[in-house]
């Protein structure tokens, strides 16, 4: 027992420090107290404290808060969030938002886009009409064939996410796993035998691994990918290599398999090393699932999608994994009975959480002569791009996580179950989907032309350049290596981690990297739309302070 002395229900609770057990409302129950559990120890000491918002002020007693208590608590929280918003510089999300005036009305409206975006639903409180407009906008921006047409395999299909790119990655990898392991495509799912869990027949002479996809992604990949392969039980090349071919790491015979595909100093995937790894598994007949970063999380690096696509397709073609028939039932002669389809034995997923929102406009700016360069092509212009995801709260800016997932209609898999209950096919990941997010993205896109977006992209690009130069100057001034670096065309600038107070004030994101065998604690700053030169100069002033960098 933790606190013998103090009866748990005497623990002071809520803004008045009243014992928890005295804070009940006047609801009269026949047999004494409501059947709820009291705290066993003091929650105020159980959790980390936020100095600006004392937990006591926001704890929720059974009686709720009266208007005065509520006002005090909310004012504390508001002041804290408004201060942090002003100085927020460390993450790739835009934080100057102004939706309140126009969209406040909808906070009192229920919007739920449950089910497929292209099917109306018996759940009529939805914003799917706006969702489809937003999806068409991105299909065009990313050079997909649009509008969506369920009978045209080359047309795009997509949906707006309720989480951010983490959900897009999860959904993309789920689709990829089922596609590569030979499950039934959606376009073949008519008829009575349309079971999503059906397994394919192994063809004559086909590798025993023909339907065991292996995943590849770089060391600079977002943790949501690691989580997705875990949740989906997808084998990574590291796992298969270590368990089945322990002594055969093709990157260094006799050395341990790397956990991820190595990346370059700039943070982009090392295409040559990826090629060596992909060849090892393709030669054994494993289908290949590659997830690429378009804007890696920490360095903001762009994988060379075009080079990877060309390389992976070339290698897969050598081993019959570029196009292959997938058979489902045995015909009379014991072979496939014609119920088959042809599909690729590889899948390229693009994690464009930030980059897919921002770089299309930078490319427009380059074509208009406003900037010299833009990052490499990543979108559906490349025929090998199978799926793509982007976060809505990052480049565009929304008050909560949201995003876009997009693929080609012909690559969709049969959903696990038909969903008569909601009146629309259950083709998305979540059940209920956030319909407010569609409204936010629609609002933003309606109010910003390509010209506006291109101008904003140039401004952020130039701001990142400014931050980079000023930090290099500071490094000279202090006569000390601050490890200042910016990957090509990245909005992130990284440098040596300063004092924790500065990290907290500007919400700087931390990462420890190994460089030349030593650990380096880094932070980065992201040059997003809300960040001003003034705020950057404030940060530089703080970084000049005597204790800014530990000796
Ligand atoms: C932010 C990020 C994600 C995750 O996006 P959420 O919107 O936070 O789910 C995935 N990949 C990359 C490269 C990211 O930067």
Give a verbal description of the structure.
The protein is α/β, with parallel strands linked by helices. Among the domains are: 2-79, no CATH class; 451-543, Aspartate Aminotransferase, domain 1, CATH 3.90.1150. The chain is 32% helix and 13% strand. The chain contains 15 helices and 14 strands. The strands form 4 sheets. It has a 7-stranded mixed β-sheet with strand order 3-11-10-9-6-4-5, sandwiched between helices. A 3-stranded antiparallel β-sheet has the order 12-14-13. Helix 11 links the parallel strand 9 and strand 10 (385-391). Helix 6 (165-180) crosses helix 7 (223-232). The radius of gyration is 27 Å and the shape is globular. The model is unreliable at 1-5 (pLDDT under 50). It binds pyridoxal-5'-phosphate (PLP). Residues 163-166, 222, 224, 293, 295-297, 351, 353-354, 391, 401, 403 line the site of pyridoxal-5'-phosphate (PLP).
- List low-confidence stretches: 1-5
Q: Could you describe the largest sheet, including whether it forms a barrel?
A: 7 strands, mixed
Given this structure, which CATH class of the domain at 451-543 is correct?
Alpha Beta
Beta-strand percent range = 5-15%
Number of helices: 15
Q: Which cofactors or ions or other ligands sit in this model?
A: pyridoxal-5'-phosphate
What series of H and E elements makes up the topology? EEHHHHHEHEHEHHEHEEEHEEHHEHEEH
* Strand line-up across the major sheet: 3-11-10-9-6-4-5
What share of residues is helical?
25-40%
Count of DSSP strands: 14
Question: How large, in whole angstroms, is the Cα Rg?
Answer: 27 Å
Amino- and carboxy-terminal Cα gap: 44 Å
- Stated plainly, the CATH topology of the domain at 451-543 is called Aspartate Aminotransferase, domain 1
- CATH architecture type of the domain at 451-543: Alpha-Beta Complex
Structural class based on helices, strands and sheet pairing: alpha/beta
What overall geometry do the principal axes of the alpha carbons give? globular
Keywords: Decarboxylase, Lyase, Pyridoxal phosphate
Family: Belongs to the group II decarboxylase family.
Organism: Streptomyces alanosinicus
GO molecular function, one term: pyridoxal phosphate binding
């Amino acid at each position: 027992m933790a606190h013998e002395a103090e009866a748990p229900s005497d623990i002071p609770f809520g803004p008045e420090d009243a014992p928890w057990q005295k804070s009940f409302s006047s609801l009269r129950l026949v047999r004494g107290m409501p059947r709820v559990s009291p705290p066993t120890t003091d929650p105020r000491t159980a959790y980390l404290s936020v100095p600006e918002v004392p937990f006591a002020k926001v704890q929720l007693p059974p009686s709720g808060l009266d208007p005065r208590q509520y006002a005090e608590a909310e004012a504390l929280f508001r002041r804290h969030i408004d201060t942090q918003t002003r100085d927020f510089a460390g993450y790739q999300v835009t934080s100057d938002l102004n939706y309140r005036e126009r969209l406040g009305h909808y906070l009192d409206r229920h919007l739920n886009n449950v089910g497929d975006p292209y099917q109306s639903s018996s759940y009529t409180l939805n914003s799917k009409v706006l969702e489809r407009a937003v999806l068409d906008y991105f299909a065009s921006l990313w050079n997909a064939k649009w509008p969506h047409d369920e009978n045209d395999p080359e047309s795009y299909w997509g949906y707006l996410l309720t989480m951010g790119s983490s959900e897009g990655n999860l959904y993309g990898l789920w689709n990829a796993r089922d596609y590569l392991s030979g499950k039934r495509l959606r376009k073949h799912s008519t008829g009575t035998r349309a079971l999503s869990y059906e397994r394919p027949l192994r063809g004559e002479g086909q590798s025993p691994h023909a339907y065991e996809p292996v995943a590849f992604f770089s060391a600079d990949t977002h943790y949501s990918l690691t989580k997705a392969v875990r949740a989906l039980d997808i084998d990574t090349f590291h796992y298969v290599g270590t368990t089945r071919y322990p002594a055969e790491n093709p990157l260094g015979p006799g050395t341990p398999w790397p956990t991820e595909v190595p990346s370059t100093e700039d943070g982009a995937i090392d295409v040559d090393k990826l090629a060596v790894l992909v060849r090892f598994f393709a030669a054994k007949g494993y289908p290949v699932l590659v997830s690429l970063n378009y804007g890696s999380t920490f360095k903001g690096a762009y994988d060379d999608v075009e080079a990877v696509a060309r390389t992976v397709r070339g290698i897969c073609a050598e081993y019959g994994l570029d196009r292959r028939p997938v058979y489902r039932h045995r015909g009379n002669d014991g072979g496939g009975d014609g119920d088959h389809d042809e599909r690729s034995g590889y899948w390229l997923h693009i994690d464009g959480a930030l980059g897919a929102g921002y770089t299309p406009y930078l490319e427009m700016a380059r074509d208009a002569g406003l900037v010299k360069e833009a990052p490499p092509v990543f979108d559906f212009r490349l025929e090998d791009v199978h799926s793509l995801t982007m976060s809505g709260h990052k480049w565009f800016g929304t008050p909560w996580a949201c995003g876009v997932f997009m693929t080609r209609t012909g690559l969709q898999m049969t959903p696990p179950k038909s969903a008569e209950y909601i009146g629309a096919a259950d083709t998305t990941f979540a059940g209920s989907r956030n319909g407010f997010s569609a409204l936010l993205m629609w609002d933003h896109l309606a109010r910003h032309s390509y010209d506006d977006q291109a101008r904003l992209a140039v401004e952020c690009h130039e701001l990142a350049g400014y931050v980079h130069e000023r930090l290099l100057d500071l490094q000279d001034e202090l006569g000390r290596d601050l490890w200042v670096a910016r990957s090509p065309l990245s909005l992130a600038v990284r440098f040596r981690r300063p004092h924790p107070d500065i990290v907290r004030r500007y919400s700087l994101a931390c990462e420890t990297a190994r460089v030349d065998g030593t650990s380096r604690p880094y932070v980065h700053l992201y040059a997003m739309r809300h960040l001003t030169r003034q705020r950057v100069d404030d940060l530089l002033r703080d970084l000049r302070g005597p204790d800014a960098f530990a000796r």
